[in-house]
């Protein structure tokens, strides 16, 4: 089972963000207060891990059901990390700008890499159905519609 402390470790493992753990937030005085994501508080430039975790939990459940995918714990941690990175980036005005320029320098990007990585986890873990479904009248299927030019008597279909 994945909990918030595991997700905080995953954020630091899979993204460029730093995050404050529950132990760091509970210390007197709190430590790691300059992290990108604080455990239970936030500021104008810092995110709230508890709130992001709640939002990500709902989104991952919806996307898992929609894709028909059940992610194991490690992929779930990756999904949380990428989705929380995306939620963190959304806090800022130009989070999805395709190009940003300053003092003559410019950077162009296709969109949020975090969201693309998140969506790829569901695509990569889909189970492909390889069940062969026979036509309801496969024994009397018109010869002209077959993919082979072999005479119909030469084709043996076994059930």
Task: Give structural notes.
- With 159 residues, the protein is mostly helical.
- Helices cover 41% and strands 8% of the residues.
- It has one domain (4-99, 107-132).
- A two-stranded parallel sheet has the order 1-2. Strands 3-4 form a two-stranded antiparallel sheet.
- The longest helix has 19 residues, at 49-67.
- It starts with a helix and ends in a 35-residue tail after the last helix.
What does this entry show, briefly?
With 159 residues, this protein is mainly alpha-helical. The protein is built from 5 helices and 4 strands, in the order ααββααββα. The chain is elongated.
Tags for this model:
8% strand; single chain; 5 helices; mainly alpha; 159 residues; two-stranded antiparallel ribbon; two-stranded parallel sheet
Please render the helix and strand layout as text:
Blueprint: H1 4-14, H2 22-26, E1 37-38, E2 47-48, H3 49-67, H4 73-90, E3 99-102, E4 105-108, H5 113-124
Parallel strand pairs: 1-2
Antiparallel strand pairs: 3-4
> What average pLDDT do the residues reach?
83
How much of the polypeptide forms β-strand, as a percent range? 5-15%
Biggest sheet strand order reads 1-2
Question: Order of helices and strands, N to C?
Answer: HHEEHHEEH
Radius of gyration: 25 Å
Helix content: 40-55%
Number of strands: 4
**Overall geometry:** elongated
Distance between the termini: 43 Å
Class from helix and strand fractions: mainly alpha
Note the total helix count: 5
